[in-house]
Structure formats: structure tokens, C-alpha cells
Design goal:
The complex is a heterodimer of chains A (115) and B (111).
Chain A (H helix, E strand, L loop, with lengths): L3 E4 L2 E4 L5 E7 L6 E7 L6 E7 L5 E2 L8 E7 L2 E6 L8 E8 L6 E3 L3 E5 L1
Parallel strand pairs in A: 2-11
Antiparallel strand pairs in A: 1-3, 3-8, 4-5, 4-9, 5-6, 7-8, 9-10, 9-11
Chain B lengths: L3 E4 L2 E5 L4 E7 L6 E6 L6 E6 L5 E4 L2 E5 L5 E6 L8 E8 L6 E3 L3 E6 L1
Parallel strand pairs in B: 2-11
Antiparallel strand pairs in B: 1-3, 3-8, 4-5, 4-9, 6-7, 7-8, 9-10, 9-11
Classes of the chains: A mainly beta (115), B mainly beta (111).
């Protein structure tokens, strides 16, 4: 399967600042990456589908102006949480999709804490 | 909207015991995947099943897909502390390649 990394693994920031999270596909060219959010004791909720070279597709209820996604290359997608607030504190996980298939390989996640 | 229900939500048993967890869908699965997630990490794919009635084994784990492709079970034999984690089932919907996750079963194996 694909190897996926995320950076940083954890970040603490002040309310009102912006935070960028990187997702890299280390051994696989990913035209599609996915961003999930997971609150404590809960399952993964898909936030958006990141498409290389085009705009991301956001799930219902996810603010595209707050969660900026850039997928500029086949190995890198970034998620920027703009003007973060404490309620944005969560575990953010990205995944890459295997070519033509439905299997996804997940990164190790980024824990965001907004004070 | 498809709903995936997993049961039980929480399960705590002693090392060496057997257990079964379940995943049920309100609609037919496109393809069913089971993942295990440990605290602070991303989910790791355990298995993908596609065909109704399919049974797959992964060491002490046995995955069964219902004939009608709307339910699945995961059976663990002689559970070990290393099996502790959040077990998630997911449906890989075709086309958009999106995954829909169940709420998970949080399993704790006590030494």
C-alpha cells in the first residue's frame, strides 16, 4: 500500500491564527487525496476531496473559506485552518486513494489544539 | 444517505477470549473495508471484501461478508492486548471514491 506522511504531527496555536497541515504521498502519485476530521471518541468524518490541479470538493457543512485545501502536486496536499478557534481542535487525517480503486491509505494524523 | 452502524460501541474483554463485532448498513455495500486505528494514529486497512458471502482470514481475525452485502462481522480468536484499538468499517462508494465510516467499535483487551 501507499505510504502517507503528515506534518506536523501535533500543533498548538492561539485562537485567531492560521495553521497549515501537510499531507505527502511518499511512494505513490496521488491525483486524489482526502481530508478527514476526527473528534475524540468519534469516527472519521470526511471534510473534503482534494484533486490535483483543481479545486477541492467540500462535504456539506464544511466551510471552504475556513479550511483551505491546495493540491499543487501529485505528492502533496495542504490543509490550512484559517482563523482557528477552540472548536477546530481535532485530529486531522489525510488519505490517498489507490489508482482506480476504493482502497485508501491513511496518514498518521495531525492533532490540532487551539487555545 | 447511507448509515453504517457498528456494534457494540465499546467492548472490554480479557486476553485469550474470543469476540465478534458487527457492521450493518442501511443499503448494500459497494465494497466493505475494515480498519483498525490505534490512539493518535491514522486507520490501517485490515481487509477489503466485495463478494456476498465472502470470508477472509488474517491470522486470528476472520471477516465475514453477508450474502446480501449489507452486513459484516469481524471475529477475533484468542484476543491479545495488541488487538486493542478502534475498529472501523467503511463502505467505498464507487465513482467519487469516498469512504463512509461507521462510528467504530472501541476494543480493549486486558492482560
Amino acid at each position: 500500500g501507499a505510504v502517507v506522511s503528515q506534518h506536523p504531527s501535533r500543533v498548538i496555536c492561539k485562537s485567531g491564527t492560521s495553521v497549515k497541515i501537510e499531507c505527502r504521498s511518499l511512494d505513490f502519485q496521488a491525483t486524489t487525496m482526502f481530508w478527514y476530521r476526527q473528534f475524540p471518541k468519534q469516527s472519521l468524518m470526511l471534510m473534503a476531496t482534494s484533486n490535483e490541479g483543481s479545486k477541492a470538493t467540500y462535504e456539506q457543512g464544511v466551510e471552504k473559506d475556513k479550511f483551505l485545501i491546495n493540491h499543487a502536486s501529485l505528492t502533496l496536499s495542504t490543509l490550512t485552518v484559517t482563523s482557528a478557534h477552540p472548536e477546530d481542535s481535532s485530529f486531522y487525517i489525510c488519505s490517498v486513494s489507490s489508482g482506480g480503486g476504493e482502497t485508501q491509505y491513511f496518514g498518521p494524523g495531525t492533532r490540532l489544539l487551539v487555545l | 444517505t447511507q448509515l453504517l452502524k457498528q456494534s457494540p460501541q465499546f467492548l472490554s474483554i480479557q486476553e485469550g477470549e474470543n469476540l465478534t463485532v458487527y457492521c450493518n448498513s442501511s443499503s448494500v455495500f459497494s465494497s466493505l473495508q475494515w480498519y483498525r486505528q490505534e490512539p493518535g494514529e491514522g486507520p490501517v486497512l485490515l481487509v477489503t471484501v466485495v463478494t456476498g458471502g465472502e470470508v477472509k482470514k488474517l491470522k486470528r481475525l476472520t471477516f465475514q461478508f453477508g450474502d446480501a452485502r449489507k452486513d459484516s462481522s469481524l471475529h477475533i480468536t484468542a484476543a491479545q492486548p495488541g488487538d486493542t484499538g478502534l475498529y472501523l468499517c467503511a463502505d467505498g462508494r464507487g465513482g467519487a471514491q469516498k469512504l463512509v465510516f461507521g462510528q467504530g467499535t472501541r476494543l480493549t483487551i486486558n492482560p
